[in-house]
Amino acid sequence: MLWVVAVGFFMQTLDSTIVNTALPSMAHSLGESPLRMQSVVIAYSLTMAVVIPASGWLADRFGTRTIFQTAIGLFVLGSLLCAWAPTLPVLTAARVVQGVGGAMLLPVGRLSVLRTFPREQYLQALSFVAIPGMIGPLIGPTLGGWLTQTLSWHWIFLINVPVGIIGALATIRYMPNSRLPGMGGFDVTGYLLLAVAMVALSFSLDGLAGMGFQHATVLMLLIGSMAALTAYVLHANKRQNPLFPLKLFKIHAFSVGLLGNLFARIGNGAMPFLIPLMLQVSMGYAPFDAGLMMLPVTAAGMASKRLATMLIERHGYRRVLVVNTFVVGLVMASFALISPTRPLALTLVQLAIFGMVNSIQFTAMNTVTLKDLSGGSASSGNSMLSMVQMLSMSLAVTSAGALLATFQAGFGANGAHQMEVLPAFHATFICVGLITSASAWIFMQLSPEPARDTKEEVKQAGEM
């Protein structure tokens, strides 16, 4: 069963990164501008953010095996539709289907492990299934570039089909269909309010640049998003069992960590989209070479996991997060110095440094958000964190795409020559860096006391 869940983790995390290096080739094939392909990434991550809150209830109601099989089936169907898509709107819609499946793979897989293994074996079991999930982002950009360059971009989706079929067959045989008896009703009203808030916010950010909305439309979407979020707060305050209980926000570390995750990841999440795009569009890299350039980021990130634990043990969450968030923003802004004449070795070192500080950031943010949760609040808090992480990834690419389009128009770059759009990329890197550095203020609200039992906390949060 662990291998079945591991396959699901691998499929989901691989597809989160494999698309980035293929975007210019997709754009050329579909007759679109490479700088307007962000909807392919946004559709997937935003759909995951919307569906994740419902995945746990669905598994409890219909059984883990049933929902996990459904998730794999939707993921494979979405992959086939993506490979077939003749236009960008069709491809975006297919990514929505894929995102629905991907949203259920991770939480339902974790839930099945939790219900199958005794508590003393749970951490070891979850560590095992998390390894393929870490390999996916490591090989995703390079594999995506190689498939795109050697075959075509369609194969970055088609490779999911045989893996998914094997996973679905193994699920039937090895995964128990555990349910939770006496399930209460699902908070449909709260779910719809949160979904409307997330979708309206994402559309408003991408409205002017990506979708060509008028200013009034964008303003109405923003107002609608805030109204839906306010309505959810009022609804959750009255309902006995809301989707996410408001008492979670009485836990100080959780509140600060959740807000920090939301805003800090807007910068972090933009980089995997911006870097391969810049390398290909502005510097003439082939897809495979652009994918190889992302290896230092992921390799340094994996190598620095233990460093994050050591830093938090010595200096505490507050100091590490405040300093590291500011440093991450500076490193992001430093990518404005990249040019075709710059030595390759210097760029590789810069990418490795970004991977290191970014990994420390993710580890510390996840841990501080979840460390004070216990009992019934742990499940709701973890689901909310997963939702916020995927929402911030969507907002990150949305914001980066909007900034890129704005600066491209401001600098008068029409894309006729690849070097014309490089200043737009430089300005975008500076902006996302400033956004990230500014979010360090959020972590200043944490208690300055050193963390206790940090090693175990980091290990558990790192698997979530």
TrEMBL record:
Keyword Transport: yes
Assigned keywords, A-Z: Cell membrane, Membrane, Transmembrane, Transmembrane helix, Transport
Start and end residues of each Major facilitator superfamily (MFS) profile domain: 1-451
Bilayer-crossing regions: 40-59, 66-86, 92-113, 125-147, 153-172, 184-205, 217-236, 248-267, 273-299, 320-338, 344-364, 385-404, 424-444
One of the Pfam families matching this protein, by short name: MFS_1
Membrane topology: Multi-pass membrane protein
Keyword hit for Transferase: no
InterPro entries named among the record's database cross-references: EmrB-like, MFS, MFS_dom, MFS_trans_sf
Compartments reported by the entry: Cell membrane
Chief place of localization: membrane
NCBIfam families: efflux_EmrB, PRK10504.1
Full protein name: DHA2 family efflux MFS transporter permease subunit
Organism: Cupriavidus campinensis
